[in-house]
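Working notes for the structural subgroup meeting. M.R. asked for a predicted model of this chain before we commit to crystallization trials. I am recording the input and output together here so anyone reviewing the notebook later can reproduce the run.

Input as submitted:
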Amino acid sequence: MTVIGRNPVTRRAEELDTIAAVLPLDRRDELADLLTDQDVETLRHLINEGMGENTLRALTSDLAYLQAWSLAATGASLPWPAPEAMLLKFVAHHLWQPDQRDIDPCHGMPADVEQRLREQRFLRSSGPHAPDTVRRRLASWSTLTKWRGLTGVFSSPALKSAIRLAVRATPRPQKRKSAKAITGDVLAKMLATCSMGSLRDVRDQAILMIAFASGGGRRSEIASLRTEQLTIEPPIAVEGGPPLPSLAIHLGRTKTSGAEHEDVVYLTGRPVDALNAWLAAARIESGSIFRKVDRWGNVSKRAMEPGAVNQIVKQRADMAGLEPGEFSAHGLRSGYLTEAANRGIPLPEAMEQSRHRSAQQASSYYNNATRRSGRAARML
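Returned structure, recorded in token form:
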């Protein structure tokens, strides 16, 4: 391929490529065309500040969408800082009422803006955005504004009121990331499908066990695990039985750990045996732990993608005779807390392993388990 000069788009593409190891970008060339020099510099600065990879991916994705929407809606790049009218326009374009659009075609996102975003693959759904998506993108917009040393109006009463009224006018049922929690009984059925002994079976068994036992590890954390993160701990003595193997996984900075702390989770017993069995079978002594296995049983040298963890969960659910559409990788996270509640494990103890920082969020699984088994649900 012939390179014709280093125009701004080419240069930005090269700069984005230099940070790809920390911030994988599937649409580098498109992002280079959308993002400005200052946008790329802001991302590089965030990387140098040690912001978590998942947060960086989300910020980059949201920034790209906001830029594309701004160009389609106003013909210009995002203004920094954004005026209140721009933020209100964003809300109006994304939180609208389907019934009202049937009456007024101009209600919500204009047709030309919608068409352009669809052509660029930024817009896929046909209805209004989920309120949480709108809030997250506004939060990303606010974060990037602060990192540029500017002050935004994201806390203005008018913006908060607009979001509140829009959400109230178009109620949406709250959906969990996984329709069903993968509790102990469900996990046992999935693990039973890994008994044939192939390399994939050994790997998938280790993935399911580690993801669940680590408190419901996020799929990105599981997929990116490396041998350098593992520390062998002294065996755990068990009355009436042999000592159980113990292992520490050093996760570093994660979504909930904060900038000055590193997360560590401990595994004991079967999950450790399953992990050791995979490492031995795949002959992995260093580097990425969970890797792709091809149809001939060859193990890749590269880490699997986070999405592969989700595919494994769905595949094993299907093989177990369950409905794969009802389960996802997040079901291991919600399932861990639900199982902990069913077994009477105290919430603070379970949160230490799941690394939830919000007791309100974690306790929702406990409340559901308690309500289902409590006396109030058995009045008749």
